[in-house]
């Protein structure tokens, strides 16, 4: 079957993330894939055809009428910028699958947890941001959500990345008395390639806790990491921060807690990430907002457990405590408690990392995810 994928911007980085990995896995399953985008720095690869189009072509009925693919997967996040495209495709009798992030603020009403991250400190800036969020998610979404629901009615299916995100969106549809649309929402996790290799001969794991992120991004909560680690006394454990801004975080932590064993790496080639992960035991991610956190998924596939905040994808990853601990809320004290819980689990030999890694490699295997999407398409 010929299947089209659309994503606004497809970079080389996206080749290793779900848009690229899903496209490649569908090709390996015998599908003919054309990936449409407005911007790209990628040429054809792995049998996936890359086609750069203009904004005018994106919104042109004539353009899509001549395209052969009867099915189009759109990375839309229910953005209103794609409403015209979706309307055009429906009129052309093409099957539309909307690919959504794993979060609970796609349409009104907001999932309760989504007003939690702003206003959590006493700073004037945080309080003003909190007020802005309250206004934003109390009034505007009531107008915008009706238009987003129209997208859902025109779509044949929606793919969302975690069970809780699926439930949150279904609950929002119930609010609008559109329970009939809930069955269109399908949970399919993003695929992960990191860790999918024989781990025999790997070195023994260290008491090492790893955090990966772009620490200039407020959502990654570098400030929370500093607050948690600045008061931690764990002489038998080491910490590794990876990503831009790691050195600055390390300096702040060491200034307040000079005895903490901590190292930082500003940049690590992607192919080397598994080598670091397989040395560690815990992946620490105190994010304030996140979708399907790829680094956390990769850590699970390498046998680590998680100490995380209660975001939708993180709750899925922790598997009711079997693979990690999610903090009760986003307060620093409770994030620190989640981390201490995970250290205690490892010290009490709670985890079998090789078994856990094998289970997550199977769960997030690109071929499995590709088959789930292929079966969904066949059922439409």
Structural overview:
The chain has 380 residues and is an alpha/beta fold. It has 2 domains: 2-190 and 366-379, Rossmann fold (3-Layer(aba) Sandwich), CATH 3.40.50.2000; 208-363, 3-Layer(aba) Sandwich (Rossmann fold). It is 40% helix and 16% strand. The protein has 15 helices and 15 strands. The strands form 3 sheets. It has a 7-stranded parallel sheet with strand order 5-3-1-6-7-8-9, sandwiched between helices. Strand 10 (208-212), helix 8 and strand 11 (238-242) form a beta-alpha-beta unit. Helix 4 runs parallel beside helix 6 (140-154) and helix 8 runs parallel beside helix 9 (246-256). The longest helix has 16 residues, at 332-347. The chain is globular and about 65 Å long. The two termini are 13 Å apart. The relative contact order is 0.12. The model has no long low-confidence stretch (mean pLDDT 90).
Please give a quick description of this structure.
The protein contains 15 helices and 15 strands. By secondary structure, it is α/β, with parallel strands linked by helices.
How many structural domains are formed by the residues?
A: 2
Characterize the largest beta sheet: strand count, sense, and whether it forms a barrel: 7 strands, parallel
Query: In percent terms, what proportion of residues is strand?
Result: 15-25%
Radius of gyration: 22 Å
Strand order of the largest sheet: 5-3-1-6-7-8-9
How many individual helices?
A: 15
Top-tier CATH class of the largest domain: Alpha Beta
N-to-C terminal Cα separation, in Å? 13 Å
């Amino acid at each position: 079957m010929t299947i089209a994928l659309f994503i606004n911007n497809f970079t080389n980085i996206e080749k290793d993330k779900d848009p690229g990995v899903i496209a490649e896995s569908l090709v390996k399953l015998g599908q003919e894939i054309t990936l449409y985008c407005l911007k790209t720095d990628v040429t054809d690869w792995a049998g996936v055809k890359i086609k750069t189009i203009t904004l005018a072509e994106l919104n042109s009925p004539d353009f899509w009428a001549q395209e052969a693919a009867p099915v189009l997967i759109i990375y839309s996040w229910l953005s209103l910028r794609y409403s015209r495209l979706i309307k055009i495709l429906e009129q052309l009798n093409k099957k539309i699958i909307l690919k959504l992030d794993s979060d609970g603020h796609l349409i009104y009403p907001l999932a309760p947890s989504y007003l939690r991250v702003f206003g959590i400190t006493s700073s004037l800036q945080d309080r003003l941001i909190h007020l802005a969020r309250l206004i934003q998610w109390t009034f505007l979404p009531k107008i915008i959500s009706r238009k987003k629901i129209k997208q859902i009615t025109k779509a044949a299916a929606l793919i969302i990345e975690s069970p809780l995100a699926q439930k949150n969106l279904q609950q929002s549809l119930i609010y609008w008395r559109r329970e009939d649309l809930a069955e269109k929402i399908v949970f399919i996790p993003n695929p992960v390639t990191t860790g999918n290799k024989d781990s025999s001969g790997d070195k023994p794991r260290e008491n090492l806790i790893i955090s990966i992120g772009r620490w200039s991004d407020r959502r990654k909560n570098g400030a929370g990491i500093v607050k948690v680690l600045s008061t931690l006394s764990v002489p038998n454990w080491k910490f590794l921060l990876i990503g831009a801004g790691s050195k600055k975080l390390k300096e702040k932590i060491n200034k307040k807690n000079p005895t903490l064993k901590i190292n930082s790496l500003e940049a690590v080639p992607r192919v080397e990430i598994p080598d670091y992960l397989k040395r560690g035991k815990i992946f620490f991610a105190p994010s304030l907002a996140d979708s399907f956190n790829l680094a956390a998924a990769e850590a699970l596939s390498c046998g680590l457990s998680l100490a995380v905040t209660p975001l939708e994808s993180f709750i899925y990853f922790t598997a009711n405590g079997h693979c990690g601990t999610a903090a009760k809320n986003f307060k620093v004290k409770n994030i620190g408690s989640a981390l201490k819980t995970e250290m205690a689990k490892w010290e009490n030999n709670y985890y079998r990392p090789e078994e856990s890694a094998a289970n997550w490699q199977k769960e997030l295997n690109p071929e499995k995810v590709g088959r789930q999407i292929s079966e969904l398409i066949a059922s439409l």
